[in-house]
Amino acid sequence: MIIEGPVLKYGDKIDTDIIIPARHLKYTDPNYLAQHAMEPLDPEFYKKASKGVVVVAGKVFGMGSSREQAAIALKAAGVRVIVAESFARIFYRNCINNGLPLITLPYATKEIKEGDVVKVNVETGEVRVGNKVLNGKGITGMALDILKAGGIMEYLKRVSQVPTQGG
Amino acid sequence: MTGTLTEKILSRASGRSVSPGDVIEANVDIVAFHDLTGYHVIEVMEKANMMKIFDKSKIVVAFDHLAPPPDVRSAEIQVNIRKFVREMRLPNFHDVNVGILHELLIEKYALPGQVIVAADSHTTTSGALGAFAQGMGASDVAAAVITGKTWMVVPQPFKVELTGTPGKWVNGKDVALKLLGDFKADYFNGMSIEVHVRNPKAFPTDYRATVSNMGIEMNADALMFVPDQETKDYIKTMRGKEVELLTPDPKASYQDEYTIELEKLEPLVAAPYSVDNVKTAREVSNVEVDQVYIGSCTNGRLSDFQMAAEILKGRTVKTRCIAIPSSYEMFKQAMEKGYIETLVNAGCVVTYGTCGPCLGGHFGVAGPGEVIVSTSSRNFRGRMGSNEAKVYLSGPSVAAATAATGRITDPRDLQ
Ligand code: SF4
Protein backbone atom coordinates (compact mmCIF):
# COMPACT_ATOMS: atom_id res chain seq x y z
CA MET A 1 0.00 0.00 0.00
CA ILE A 2 1.65 3.27 -1.16
CA ILE A 3 0.26 6.60 0.05
CA GLU A 4 1.32 10.03 -1.14
CA GLY A 5 0.55 13.53 0.06
CA PRO A 6 1.77 16.91 1.29
CA VAL A 7 2.97 17.15 4.86
CA LEU A 8 1.39 18.96 7.79
CA LYS A 9 3.95 18.92 10.57
CA TYR A 10 3.50 19.02 14.36
CA GLY A 11 5.77 18.52 17.36
CA ASP A 12 6.13 16.07 20.23
CA LYS A 13 3.38 14.84 22.56
CA ILE A 14 0.37 15.75 20.46
CA ASP A 15 -2.29 14.47 22.85
CA THR A 16 -5.83 13.32 22.24
CA ASP A 17 -7.28 16.40 23.95
CA ILE A 18 -5.63 18.36 21.12
CA ILE A 19 -6.66 15.92 18.41
CA ILE A 20 -10.30 16.05 19.48
CA PRO A 21 -11.36 17.93 22.65
CA ALA A 22 -13.55 16.10 25.14
CA ARG A 23 -16.58 18.33 24.54
CA HIS A 24 -16.99 16.66 21.12
CA LEU A 25 -16.99 13.09 22.42
CA LYS A 26 -20.74 12.73 22.75
CA TYR A 27 -20.84 12.06 19.02
CA THR A 28 -19.14 9.61 16.67
CA ASP A 29 -20.20 11.09 13.31
CA PRO A 30 -16.96 11.38 11.25
CA ASN A 31 -18.03 14.56 9.44
CA TYR A 32 -18.81 16.35 12.67
CA LEU A 33 -15.59 15.20 14.33
CA ALA A 34 -13.47 16.12 11.30
CA GLN A 35 -14.45 19.77 11.63
CA HIS A 36 -12.99 19.89 15.13
CA ALA A 37 -9.81 17.87 14.57
CA MET A 38 -6.69 19.50 16.10
CA GLU A 39 -8.85 22.50 17.03
CA PRO A 40 -6.95 23.71 20.13
CA LEU A 41 -3.60 23.72 18.30
CA ASP A 42 -4.47 24.50 14.70
CA PRO A 43 -8.01 25.80 14.08
CA GLU A 44 -7.28 25.79 10.31
CA PHE A 45 -6.49 22.06 10.32
CA TYR A 46 -9.79 20.96 8.82
CA LYS A 47 -9.30 23.31 5.89
CA LYS A 48 -5.66 22.41 5.40
CA ALA A 49 -6.24 18.65 5.57
CA SER A 50 -9.30 18.47 3.36
CA LYS A 51 -7.46 17.66 0.13
CA GLY A 52 -5.62 14.76 1.69
CA VAL A 53 -2.45 15.09 3.77
CA VAL A 54 0.28 13.21 5.57
CA VAL A 55 0.69 14.22 9.20
CA VAL A 56 4.30 14.18 10.42
CA ALA A 57 4.95 14.52 14.13
CA GLY A 58 7.36 13.84 16.98
CA LYS A 59 7.17 11.59 19.98
CA VAL A 60 4.18 9.71 21.47
CA PHE A 61 1.67 11.06 18.98
CA GLY A 62 -1.85 10.42 20.28
CA MET A 63 -0.92 10.16 23.95
CA GLY A 64 -3.68 10.54 26.50
CA SER A 65 -7.20 9.28 26.45
CA SER A 66 -8.65 6.19 24.75
CA ARG A 67 -11.17 8.20 22.69
CA GLU A 68 -11.47 6.43 19.36
CA GLN A 69 -12.85 9.69 17.97
CA ALA A 70 -9.22 10.89 17.71
CA ALA A 71 -8.55 8.39 14.92
CA ILE A 72 -11.97 8.92 13.34
CA ALA A 73 -11.58 12.73 13.31
CA LEU A 74 -8.13 12.75 11.69
CA LYS A 75 -9.10 10.24 9.04
CA ALA A 76 -12.33 12.03 8.18
CA ALA A 77 -10.55 15.38 8.03
CA GLY A 78 -8.33 14.04 5.25
CA VAL A 79 -5.29 12.49 6.92
CA ARG A 80 -4.11 9.58 4.77
CA VAL A 81 -1.25 8.37 6.92
CA ILE A 82 0.58 9.54 10.05
CA VAL A 83 4.38 9.41 10.25
CA ALA A 84 5.62 9.99 13.79
CA GLU A 85 8.72 9.32 15.85
CA SER A 86 6.60 7.18 18.16
CA PHE A 87 2.93 6.57 18.89
CA ALA A 88 0.89 6.06 22.03
CA ARG A 89 -0.33 2.47 22.17
CA ILE A 90 -4.08 3.04 22.43
CA PHE A 91 -4.12 5.62 19.65
CA TYR A 92 -2.10 3.31 17.40
CA ARG A 93 -4.65 0.53 17.82
CA ASN A 94 -7.55 2.92 17.30
CA CYS A 95 -6.06 4.05 13.98
CA ILE A 96 -5.56 0.46 12.83
CA ASN A 97 -9.17 -0.28 13.77
CA ASN A 98 -10.36 2.70 11.75
CA GLY A 99 -8.27 2.17 8.64
CA LEU A 100 -5.79 5.00 9.24
CA PRO A 101 -2.22 3.74 8.61
CA LEU A 102 0.76 4.84 10.72
CA ILE A 103 4.51 4.68 10.26
CA THR A 104 7.02 4.95 13.09
CA LEU A 105 10.05 6.90 11.86
CA PRO A 106 12.78 8.08 14.25
CA TYR A 107 13.87 11.65 13.47
CA ALA A 108 10.78 12.18 11.31
CA THR A 109 10.53 15.82 12.40
CA LYS A 110 14.19 16.44 11.53
CA GLU A 111 14.09 14.75 8.12
CA ILE A 112 10.74 16.04 6.86
CA LYS A 113 9.50 19.62 6.48
CA GLU A 114 6.02 21.11 6.41
CA GLY A 115 4.82 21.15 2.82
CA ASP A 116 7.17 18.36 1.60
CA VAL A 117 5.43 15.81 -0.55
CA VAL A 118 6.13 12.34 0.80
CA LYS A 119 5.47 8.85 -0.50
CA VAL A 120 4.89 6.22 2.17
CA ASN A 121 4.95 2.45 1.90
CA VAL A 122 2.64 1.35 4.67
CA GLU A 123 3.97 -2.20 4.90
CA THR A 124 7.73 -1.72 4.56
CA GLY A 125 7.76 1.61 6.38
CA GLU A 126 9.76 3.27 3.63
CA VAL A 127 9.19 7.04 3.39
CA ARG A 128 10.43 8.92 0.29
CA VAL A 129 10.94 12.67 0.44
CA GLY A 130 12.25 13.92 -2.90
CA ASN A 131 15.39 11.83 -3.48
CA LYS A 132 15.74 10.90 0.16
CA VAL A 133 14.69 7.43 1.31
CA LEU A 134 13.95 7.05 5.02
CA ASN A 135 13.39 3.70 6.67
CA GLY A 136 10.66 3.60 9.25
CA LYS A 137 8.68 0.77 10.79
CA GLY A 138 5.66 -0.21 8.75
CA ILE A 139 2.56 -2.09 9.80
CA THR A 140 3.10 -5.83 10.04
CA GLY A 141 1.61 -9.02 11.44
CA MET A 142 -1.61 -8.88 13.42
CA ALA A 143 -1.99 -5.11 13.03
CA LEU A 144 -1.68 -5.38 9.24
CA ASP A 145 -4.25 -8.17 9.10
CA ILE A 146 -6.69 -6.02 11.10
CA LEU A 147 -6.00 -2.93 8.99
CA LYS A 148 -6.57 -4.90 5.79
CA ALA A 149 -9.80 -6.42 7.13
CA GLY A 150 -11.11 -2.92 7.87
CA GLY A 151 -10.87 -3.00 11.67
CA ILE A 152 -11.05 -5.48 14.52
CA MET A 153 -14.79 -6.17 14.16
CA GLU A 154 -14.55 -7.02 10.47
CA TYR A 155 -11.50 -9.08 11.30
CA LEU A 156 -13.42 -10.96 14.01
CA LYS A 157 -16.25 -11.72 11.63
CA ARG A 158 -13.76 -13.20 9.22
CA VAL A 159 -11.93 -15.39 11.67
CA SER A 160 -14.62 -15.54 14.36
CA GLN A 161 -11.94 -15.57 17.00
CA VAL A 162 -8.82 -13.53 17.65
CA PRO A 163 -5.90 -15.57 16.32
CA THR A 164 -2.55 -15.81 18.02
CA GLN A 165 0.00 -15.27 15.27
CA GLY A 166 1.49 -12.06 14.04
CA GLY A 167 4.09 -9.40 14.79
CA MET B 1 9.65 -20.01 36.69
CA THR B 2 11.79 -16.88 36.61
CA GLY B 3 9.21 -14.49 35.26
CA THR B 4 8.41 -10.89 35.93
CA LEU B 5 4.88 -10.09 37.10
CA THR B 6 4.07 -9.07 33.52
CA GLU B 7 5.28 -12.39 32.11
CA LYS B 8 3.52 -14.42 34.78
CA ILE B 9 0.17 -12.68 34.29
CA LEU B 10 0.28 -12.75 30.52
CA SER B 11 1.50 -16.36 30.42
CA ARG B 12 -1.48 -17.41 32.51
CA ALA B 13 -3.84 -15.29 30.43
CA SER B 14 -2.59 -16.65 27.10
CA GLY B 15 -1.97 -20.25 28.11
CA ARG B 16 1.66 -20.26 27.02
CA SER B 17 4.99 -19.05 28.27
CA VAL B 18 5.46 -15.51 26.97
CA SER B 19 8.41 -13.15 26.61
CA PRO B 20 8.61 -9.42 25.87
CA GLY B 21 7.85 -8.64 22.23
CA ASP B 22 5.58 -11.66 21.72
CA VAL B 23 2.21 -10.97 20.13
CA ILE B 24 -0.35 -12.84 22.17
CA GLU B 25 -4.04 -13.44 22.54
CA ALA B 26 -4.92 -12.96 26.19
CA ASN B 27 -8.07 -14.01 28.00
CA VAL B 28 -9.43 -11.06 29.91
CA ASP B 29 -10.85 -11.27 33.44
CA ILE B 30 -12.77 -7.99 33.40
CA VAL B 31 -13.99 -5.80 30.55
CA ALA B 32 -15.37 -2.39 31.50
CA PHE B 33 -16.68 0.84 30.05
CA HIS B 34 -18.29 4.06 31.23
CA ASP B 35 -20.96 6.34 29.79
CA LEU B 36 -18.80 8.49 27.51
CA THR B 37 -17.09 5.52 25.86
CA GLY B 38 -19.77 2.91 26.51
CA TYR B 39 -22.27 4.23 24.00
CA HIS B 40 -19.51 4.06 21.40
CA VAL B 41 -18.69 0.45 22.34
CA ILE B 42 -22.37 -0.45 21.91
CA GLU B 43 -22.51 1.40 18.58
CA VAL B 44 -19.57 -0.62 17.31
CA MET B 45 -21.26 -3.87 18.38
CA GLU B 46 -24.55 -2.85 16.75
CA LYS B 47 -22.89 -1.77 13.53
CA ALA B 48 -21.11 -5.12 13.24
CA ASN B 49 -24.35 -6.87 14.19
CA MET B 50 -22.57 -8.81 16.92
CA MET B 51 -24.63 -8.28 20.06
CA LYS B 52 -22.91 -11.04 22.01
CA ILE B 53 -21.27 -11.01 25.42
CA PHE B 54 -18.67 -13.60 26.37
CA ASP B 55 -19.47 -13.60 30.10
CA LYS B 56 -21.94 -11.16 31.63
CA SER B 57 -20.47 -11.49 35.09
CA LYS B 58 -17.18 -10.10 33.81
CA ILE B 59 -18.55 -6.88 32.34
CA VAL B 60 -18.50 -3.77 34.53
CA VAL B 61 -20.33 -0.59 33.55
CA ALA B 62 -20.26 2.69 35.48
CA PHE B 63 -21.57 6.17 34.77
CA ASP B 64 -19.00 8.80 35.66
CA HIS B 65 -18.01 11.20 32.87
CA LEU B 66 -21.52 12.49 32.32
CA ALA B 67 -22.82 11.93 35.83
CA PRO B 68 -25.26 13.39 36.55
CA PRO B 69 -25.96 14.40 32.96
CA PRO B 70 -25.19 18.08 32.24
CA ASP B 71 -27.21 18.24 29.00
CA VAL B 72 -29.77 16.37 26.94
CA ARG B 73 -27.30 14.46 24.77
CA SER B 74 -25.51 13.19 27.90
CA ALA B 75 -28.82 12.05 29.35
CA GLU B 76 -29.64 10.34 26.06
CA ILE B 77 -26.31 8.48 26.11
CA GLN B 78 -27.14 7.21 29.58
CA VAL B 79 -30.67 6.24 28.56
CA ASN B 80 -29.24 4.16 25.71
CA ILE B 81 -26.67 2.41 27.88
CA ARG B 82 -29.25 1.64 30.59
CA LYS B 83 -31.39 0.03 27.91
CA PHE B 84 -28.45 -2.09 26.74
CA VAL B 85 -27.69 -3.09 30.33
CA ARG B 86 -31.33 -4.14 30.87
CA GLU B 87 -31.63 -6.05 27.63
CA MET B 88 -28.34 -7.83 28.12
CA ARG B 89 -29.07 -8.35 31.84
CA LEU B 90 -25.66 -7.13 32.93
CA PRO B 91 -25.32 -7.60 36.69
CA ASN B 92 -22.43 -5.18 37.35
CA PHE B 93 -23.98 -1.86 36.43
CA HIS B 94 -23.37 1.32 38.44
CA ASP B 95 -25.58 4.30 37.75
CA VAL B 96 -24.76 7.96 38.54
CA ASN B 97 -24.70 7.42 42.30
CA VAL B 98 -21.77 5.03 42.69
CA GLY B 99 -18.49 6.42 41.47
CA ILE B 100 -15.73 6.70 38.89
CA LEU B 101 -15.19 3.44 37.03
CA HIS B 102 -11.50 3.05 37.93
CA GLU B 103 -12.20 3.65 41.59
CA LEU B 104 -15.02 1.08 41.56
CA LEU B 105 -12.73 -1.42 39.86
CA ILE B 106 -10.21 -1.26 42.69
CA GLU B 107 -12.87 -1.08 45.42
CA LYS B 108 -15.00 -3.98 44.17
CA TYR B 109 -13.60 -5.98 41.26
CA ALA B 110 -9.91 -6.00 40.38
CA LEU B 111 -7.67 -8.75 41.75
CA PRO B 112 -3.94 -9.38 41.67
CA GLY B 113 -2.88 -11.27 38.54
CA GLN B 114 -5.91 -10.39 36.45
CA VAL B 115 -5.97 -8.95 32.94
CA ILE B 116 -8.36 -5.99 32.80
CA VAL B 117 -9.36 -4.10 29.69
CA ALA B 118 -11.59 -1.02 29.71
CA ALA B 119 -12.62 1.74 27.35
CA ASP B 120 -10.72 4.47 29.16
CA SER B 121 -7.02 5.19 29.30
CA HIS B 122 -6.83 5.39 33.09
CA THR B 123 -7.65 1.70 33.36
CA THR B 124 -4.00 1.41 34.45
CA THR B 125 -5.32 2.39 37.93
CA SER B 126 -6.15 -1.25 38.73
CA GLY B 127 -2.42 -1.92 38.54
CA ALA B 128 -2.46 -0.67 42.15
CA LEU B 129 -3.63 -4.17 43.13
CA GLY B 130 -1.22 -6.01 40.85
CA ALA B 131 -3.55 -6.47 37.87
CA PHE B 132 -2.34 -6.02 34.29
CA ALA B 133 -4.81 -3.33 33.31
CA GLN B 134 -4.95 -1.43 30.04
CA GLY B 135 -7.18 1.11 28.40
CA MET B 136 -8.34 0.56 24.84
CA GLY B 137 -10.57 2.25 22.29
CA ALA B 138 -14.22 1.42 21.68
CA SER B 139 -13.58 -1.12 18.91
CA ASP B 140 -10.99 -3.11 20.83
CA VAL B 141 -13.22 -3.11 23.91
CA ALA B 142 -16.24 -4.20 21.85
CA ALA B 143 -14.13 -7.11 20.54
CA ALA B 144 -13.18 -8.05 24.11
CA VAL B 145 -16.82 -7.83 25.27
CA ILE B 146 -17.80 -10.27 22.51
CA THR B 147 -14.90 -12.74 22.65
CA GLY B 148 -13.41 -12.36 26.14
CA LYS B 149 -10.03 -12.04 24.49
CA THR B 150 -7.74 -9.34 23.23
CA TRP B 151 -4.49 -9.24 21.30
CA MET B 152 -1.46 -7.45 22.64
CA VAL B 153 2.28 -7.17 22.43
CA VAL B 154 4.00 -8.33 25.64
CA PRO B 155 5.73 -5.19 26.98
CA GLN B 156 9.32 -4.86 28.20
CA PRO B 157 9.33 -4.95 32.02
CA PHE B 158 10.93 -2.09 33.98
CA LYS B 159 11.42 -2.26 37.74
CA VAL B 160 10.85 0.65 40.09
CA GLU B 161 11.69 0.24 43.73
CA LEU B 162 10.25 2.49 46.45
CA THR B 163 12.27 2.57 49.64
CA GLY B 164 11.67 4.25 52.98
CA THR B 165 8.67 6.29 54.09
CA PRO B 166 7.29 9.44 52.44
CA GLY B 167 7.18 12.72 54.36
CA LYS B 168 3.93 14.06 55.79
CA TRP B 169 2.78 16.02 52.74
CA VAL B 170 4.03 13.66 50.05
CA ASN B 171 1.80 11.02 48.47
CA GLY B 172 1.37 8.95 45.32
CA LYS B 173 1.15 12.02 43.08
CA ASP B 174 4.69 13.03 43.94
CA VAL B 175 6.01 9.59 43.00
CA ALA B 176 4.12 9.71 39.69
CA LEU B 177 5.42 13.22 38.96
CA LYS B 178 8.95 12.24 39.98
CA LEU B 179 8.91 9.42 37.40
CA LEU B 180 7.44 11.74 34.75
CA GLY B 181 9.97 14.47 35.46
CA ASP B 182 12.97 12.13 35.49
CA PHE B 183 12.03 9.98 32.50
CA LYS B 184 9.65 12.20 30.49
CA ALA B 185 6.33 11.15 29.00
CA ASP B 186 7.66 9.01 26.15
CA TYR B 187 10.29 6.90 27.92
CA PHE B 188 8.09 4.03 29.11
CA ASN B 189 6.27 3.60 25.79
CA GLY B 190 6.04 -0.16 25.16
CA MET B 191 7.05 -1.05 28.72
CA SER B 192 5.26 -2.29 31.78
CA ILE B 193 6.41 -0.76 35.04
CA GLU B 194 6.48 -3.08 38.04
CA VAL B 195 6.74 -1.22 41.33
CA HIS B 196 8.21 -3.02 44.33
CA VAL B 197 7.48 -1.37 47.67
CA ARG B 198 10.17 -2.18 50.22
CA ASN B 199 8.00 -1.18 53.16
CA PRO B 200 4.41 -2.06 52.12
CA LYS B 201 2.59 -0.14 54.86
CA ALA B 202 4.50 3.07 54.09
CA PHE B 203 2.87 3.33 50.70
CA PRO B 204 -0.82 2.41 50.99
CA THR B 205 -3.21 1.43 48.20
CA ASP B 206 -4.57 4.98 47.85
CA TYR B 207 -1.08 6.20 46.97
CA ARG B 208 -0.46 3.23 44.69
CA ALA B 209 -3.68 3.91 42.79
CA THR B 210 -2.48 7.44 42.00
CA VAL B 211 0.81 6.15 40.61
CA SER B 212 -0.83 3.38 38.57
CA ASN B 213 -3.42 5.83 37.33
CA MET B 214 -0.68 8.04 35.92
CA GLY B 215 1.08 5.09 34.30
CA ILE B 216 -0.80 6.08 31.16
CA GLU B 217 0.71 9.59 31.35
CA MET B 218 4.09 7.83 31.24
CA ASN B 219 2.78 6.00 28.19
CA ALA B 220 3.48 2.69 29.92
CA ASP B 221 1.49 -0.32 28.72
CA ALA B 222 0.73 -1.05 32.38
CA LEU B 223 1.93 0.15 35.77
CA MET B 224 1.56 -2.53 38.42
CA PHE B 225 2.44 -2.67 42.07
CA VAL B 226 3.77 -6.04 43.09
CA PRO B 227 0.96 -7.17 45.38
CA ASP B 228 1.92 -7.60 49.05
CA GLN B 229 0.42 -7.62 52.54
CA GLU B 230 -1.01 -4.11 51.96
CA THR B 231 -2.85 -5.41 48.87
CA LYS B 232 -4.29 -8.31 50.87
CA ASP B 233 -5.38 -5.99 53.67
CA TYR B 234 -6.99 -3.49 51.29
CA ILE B 235 -9.08 -6.15 49.56
CA LYS B 236 -9.97 -7.73 52.90
CA THR B 237 -11.15 -4.37 54.27
CA MET B 238 -13.07 -3.31 51.16
CA ARG B 239 -14.62 -6.67 50.22
CA GLY B 240 -14.12 -8.99 53.19
CA LYS B 241 -12.24 -11.35 50.93
CA GLU B 242 -8.93 -13.20 51.25
CA VAL B 243 -6.89 -13.19 48.08
CA GLU B 244 -3.98 -15.09 46.64
CA LEU B 245 -1.05 -13.03 45.48
CA LEU B 246 0.76 -13.50 42.21
CA THR B 247 4.27 -12.06 42.50
CA PRO B 248 7.33 -11.92 40.25
CA ASP B 249 10.17 -14.33 40.75
CA PRO B 250 12.87 -12.76 42.96
CA LYS B 251 15.38 -13.41 40.17
CA ALA B 252 13.17 -12.02 37.39
CA SER B 253 15.14 -9.94 34.93
CA TYR B 254 14.10 -6.41 34.02
CA GLN B 255 15.18 -4.21 31.16
CA ASP B 256 16.30 -1.66 33.73
CA GLU B 257 15.53 -0.51 37.26
CA TYR B 258 15.18 2.70 39.19
CA THR B 259 14.94 3.42 42.90
CA ILE B 260 13.00 6.24 44.52
CA GLU B 261 13.86 7.04 48.13
CA LEU B 262 10.51 8.19 49.44
CA GLU B 263 11.84 10.33 52.31
CA LYS B 264 13.79 12.45 49.82
CA LEU B 265 10.69 13.42 47.83
CA GLU B 266 9.12 16.84 48.22
CA PRO B 267 5.77 18.15 46.97
CA LEU B 268 5.87 18.43 43.17
CA VAL B 269 3.71 19.93 40.44
CA ALA B 270 3.43 19.48 36.68
CA ALA B 271 3.26 22.92 35.06
CA PRO B 272 1.28 23.67 31.89
CA TYR B 273 0.91 22.17 29.37
CA SER B 274 2.62 18.90 29.92
CA VAL B 275 2.51 16.14 32.53
CA ASP B 276 6.31 15.88 32.42
CA ASN B 277 6.97 19.60 32.94
CA VAL B 278 7.69 18.84 36.58
CA LYS B 279 8.87 21.36 39.19
CA THR B 280 8.86 21.52 42.95
CA ALA B 281 5.88 23.38 44.38
CA ARG B 282 8.33 25.91 45.82
CA GLU B 283 9.74 26.71 42.38
CA VAL B 284 6.34 28.02 41.24
CA SER B 285 5.10 29.33 44.58
CA ASN B 286 4.47 32.85 43.27
CA VAL B 287 1.82 31.77 40.75
CA GLU B 288 -1.66 33.16 41.52
CA VAL B 289 -4.50 30.68 41.20
CA ASP B 290 -8.22 31.07 40.40
CA GLN B 291 -9.53 27.60 41.07
CA VAL B 292 -8.41 24.47 42.89
CA TYR B 293 -9.82 21.06 42.11
CA ILE B 294 -9.44 18.20 44.57
CA GLY B 295 -10.78 14.94 43.17
CA SER B 296 -10.76 12.58 40.16
CA CYS B 297 -9.77 8.94 39.81
CA THR B 298 -6.19 10.11 40.35
CA ASN B 299 -6.52 11.75 43.78
CA GLY B 300 -10.09 11.66 45.06
CA ARG B 301 -9.70 8.99 47.74
CA LEU B 302 -9.95 9.04 51.52
CA SER B 303 -6.27 9.80 52.16
CA ASP B 304 -6.46 12.69 49.68
CA PHE B 305 -9.43 14.17 51.52
CA GLN B 306 -7.70 13.57 54.82
CA MET B 307 -4.65 15.59 53.69
CA ALA B 308 -6.81 18.36 52.28
CA ALA B 309 -8.94 18.54 55.45
CA GLU B 310 -5.92 18.64 57.69
CA ILE B 311 -4.66 21.70 55.83
CA LEU B 312 -8.00 23.48 55.46
CA LYS B 313 -9.18 22.92 59.02
CA GLY B 314 -9.93 26.33 60.51
CA ARG B 315 -8.95 28.18 57.34
CA THR B 316 -10.97 29.91 54.62
CA VAL B 317 -10.19 29.29 50.97
CA LYS B 318 -8.88 32.22 48.92
CA THR B 319 -9.57 30.55 45.56
CA ARG B 320 -12.64 28.79 44.31
CA CYS B 321 -12.14 25.24 45.52
CA ILE B 322 -14.11 22.29 44.18
CA ALA B 323 -13.77 18.93 45.89
CA ILE B 324 -15.27 15.71 44.54
CA PRO B 325 -14.59 12.29 46.07
CA SER B 326 -13.91 9.56 43.52
CA SER B 327 -16.79 7.36 44.66
CA TYR B 328 -19.80 7.35 46.92
CA GLU B 329 -17.92 5.02 49.28
CA MET B 330 -15.10 7.57 49.53
CA PHE B 331 -17.68 10.34 49.99
CA LYS B 332 -19.33 8.46 52.88
CA GLN B 333 -16.05 7.65 54.57
CA ALA B 334 -14.85 11.24 54.21
CA MET B 335 -18.15 12.38 55.68
CA GLU B 336 -17.89 10.02 58.66
CA LYS B 337 -14.35 11.24 59.35
CA GLY B 338 -15.51 14.87 59.23
CA TYR B 339 -13.39 15.82 56.22
CA ILE B 340 -16.38 16.90 54.15
CA GLU B 341 -17.57 19.16 56.97
CA THR B 342 -14.11 20.69 57.27
CA LEU B 343 -13.93 21.42 53.55
CA VAL B 344 -17.44 22.88 53.47
CA ASN B 345 -16.64 25.11 56.44
CA ALA B 346 -13.51 26.30 54.66
CA GLY B 347 -15.70 27.42 51.75
CA CYS B 348 -15.10 24.57 49.29
CA VAL B 349 -17.81 23.44 46.89
CA VAL B 350 -18.04 19.79 47.85
CA THR B 351 -20.18 17.83 45.50
CA TYR B 352 -20.69 14.43 44.14
CA GLY B 353 -20.29 14.41 40.38
CA THR B 354 -17.50 11.99 39.64
CA CYS B 355 -15.35 13.04 36.64
CA GLY B 356 -16.71 16.56 36.22
CA PRO B 357 -13.95 19.19 36.00
CA CYS B 358 -11.13 16.71 35.26
CA LEU B 359 -12.04 16.55 31.58
CA GLY B 360 -13.59 20.00 31.32
CA GLY B 361 -16.99 18.38 31.54
CA HIS B 362 -19.07 20.07 34.21
CA PHE B 363 -19.00 21.18 37.89
CA GLY B 364 -16.29 23.77 37.27
CA VAL B 365 -15.02 24.14 33.72
CA ALA B 366 -11.93 26.38 33.39
CA GLY B 367 -12.44 29.78 31.74
CA PRO B 368 -10.08 31.73 29.43
CA GLY B 369 -6.96 32.97 31.20
CA GLU B 370 -7.71 31.11 34.42
CA VAL B 371 -5.06 29.30 36.41
CA ILE B 372 -6.09 25.99 37.94
CA VAL B 373 -4.37 23.71 40.42
CA SER B 374 -5.80 20.23 40.08
CA THR B 375 -5.16 16.85 41.66
CA SER B 376 -6.28 15.13 38.45
CA SER B 377 -4.05 13.50 35.87
CA ARG B 378 -3.74 15.78 32.83
CA ASN B 379 -2.83 19.39 32.20
CA PHE B 380 -2.94 19.30 28.41
CA ARG B 381 -4.06 22.45 26.64
CA GLY B 382 -7.84 22.65 26.77
CA ARG B 383 -8.17 19.60 29.03
CA MET B 384 -10.16 21.29 31.79
CA GLY B 385 -12.03 23.73 29.56
CA SER B 386 -10.67 26.80 27.77
CA ASN B 387 -7.57 26.43 25.60
CA GLU B 388 -6.32 29.58 27.33
CA ALA B 389 -6.58 28.11 30.85
CA LYS B 390 -3.39 26.94 32.56
CA VAL B 391 -3.49 23.80 34.68
CA TYR B 392 -0.91 22.80 37.30
CA LEU B 393 -1.17 19.23 38.55
CA SER B 394 -0.37 18.46 42.16
CA GLY B 395 -1.18 16.19 45.04
CA PRO B 396 -3.89 17.08 47.58
CA SER B 397 -1.54 18.80 50.03
CA VAL B 398 -0.31 21.38 47.53
CA ALA B 399 -3.84 21.80 46.18
CA ALA B 400 -5.32 22.48 49.62
CA ALA B 401 -2.46 24.77 50.67
CA THR B 402 -2.92 26.66 47.41
CA ALA B 403 -6.64 27.03 48.06
CA ALA B 404 -5.79 28.43 51.50
CA THR B 405 -3.38 31.11 50.21
CA GLY B 406 -4.54 31.88 46.68
CA ARG B 407 -1.16 31.10 45.12
CA ILE B 408 0.72 27.86 44.59
CA THR B 409 1.95 26.83 48.01
CA ASP B 410 4.11 24.08 49.40
CA PRO B 411 2.22 22.98 52.53
CA ARG B 412 5.46 23.19 54.53
CA ASP B 413 5.43 26.94 53.95
CA LEU B 414 1.95 27.54 55.40
CA GLN B 415 1.92 29.92 58.35
S1 SF4 C 1 -11.66 11.43 36.68
FE1 SF4 C 1 -10.67 12.28 34.88
S2 SF4 C 1 -9.02 10.85 34.39
FE2 SF4 C 1 -10.43 9.81 35.78
S3 SF4 C 1 -11.81 8.67 34.45
FE3 SF4 C 1 -12.76 10.64 34.92
S4 SF4 C 1 -12.16 11.98 33.23
FE4 SF4 C 1 -10.79 10.22 33.19
TrEMBL record, chain A:
An individual GO BP term: L-leucine biosynthetic process
Alphabetic keyword roster: Amino-acid biosynthesis, Branched-chain amino acid biosynthesis, Leucine biosynthesis, Lyase
Family membership: Belongs to the LeuD family. LeuD type 2 subfamily.
Pathway the protein takes part in: Amino-acid biosynthesis; L-leucine biosynthesis; L-leucine from 3-methyl-2-oxobutanoate: step 2/4
Organism classification: Archaea, Thermoproteota, Thermoprotei, Sulfolobales, Sulfolobaceae
Record PANTHER family: 3-ISOPROPYLMALATE DEHYDRATASE SMALL SUBUNIT 1, 3-ISOPROPYLMALATE DEHYDRATASE SMALL SUBUNIT 2-RELATED-RELATED
This protein's name: 3-isopropylmalate dehydratase small subunit
Catalytic activity from the UniProt record: (2R,3S)-3-isopropylmalate = (2S)-2-isopropylmalate
EC number(s) given by UniProt: 4.2.1.33
Signal peptide bounds: none
SUPFAM superfamilies: LeuD/IlvD-like
Superkingdom field: Archaea
Pfam families assigned: Aconitase_C
Functional summary from the UniProt entry: Catalyzes the isomerization between 2-isopropylmalate and 3-isopropylmalate, via the formation of 2-isopropylmaleate.
Aconitase A/isopropylmalate dehydratase small subunit swivel domain span: 42-101
Biological source species: Metallosphaera yellowstonensis MK1
The protein's assembly and partners: Heterodimer of LeuC and LeuD.
GO molecular function: 3-isopropylmalate dehydratase activity
From TrEMBL, chain B:
Gene Ontology biological process terms from the UniProt entry: L-leucine biosynthetic process
Entry coiled-coil feature ranges: none
Keywords: 4Fe-4S, Amino-acid biosynthesis, Branched-chain amino acid biosynthesis, Iron, Iron-sulfur, Leucine biosynthesis, Lyase, Metal-binding
Pfam families: Aconitase (PF00330)
Gene Ontology molecular function terms on file: 3-isopropylmalate dehydratase activity; 4 iron, 4 sulfur cluster binding; metal ion binding
Binding note for cofactor: Binds 1 [4Fe-4S] cluster per subunit.
Domain Aconitase/3-isopropylmalate dehydratase large subunit alpha/beta/alpha residues, every copy: 23-279, 280-406
Keyword flag Protease: no
Cofactor (UniProt): [4Fe-4S] cluster
Function: Catalyzes the isomerization between 2-isopropylmalate and 3-isopropylmalate, via the formation of 2-isopropylmaleate.
Matches recorded under PANTHER family: HOMOACONITASE, MITOCHONDRIAL (PTHR43822:SF2), HOMOACONITASE, MITOCHONDRIAL-RELATED (PTHR43822)
Family per similarity comment: Belongs to the aconitase/IPM isomerase family. LeuC type 2 subfamily.
Protein name per UniProt: 3-isopropylmalate dehydratase large subunit
Organism: Metallosphaera yellowstonensis MK1
Gene designation: leuC
